[in-house]
Amino acid sequence: xxAPILKHFAYDHLPEMLQQVSEPFHRLxxxxxxxxxxxxxxxxxxxxxxxxxxxxxxxALENTTQTKxx
Length: 70
Prior knowledge:
Layout: H1 16-35, H2 40-69
Helix pairs in contact: 1-2
């Protein structure tokens, strides 16, 4: 059964530029869910991967904001 956190790795709803940032995290999260045993360490790994994905998306957004301001 897929981990509930995987829903937060969806990226189809994002603009194309952010999809490119988010999609590798989606692939890795699903691979980890498939390959690793269910348990607290896997949950922690997926949660931290989600934090990384969120930070990467924010960084991409920041870059777009700065480009528009210039």
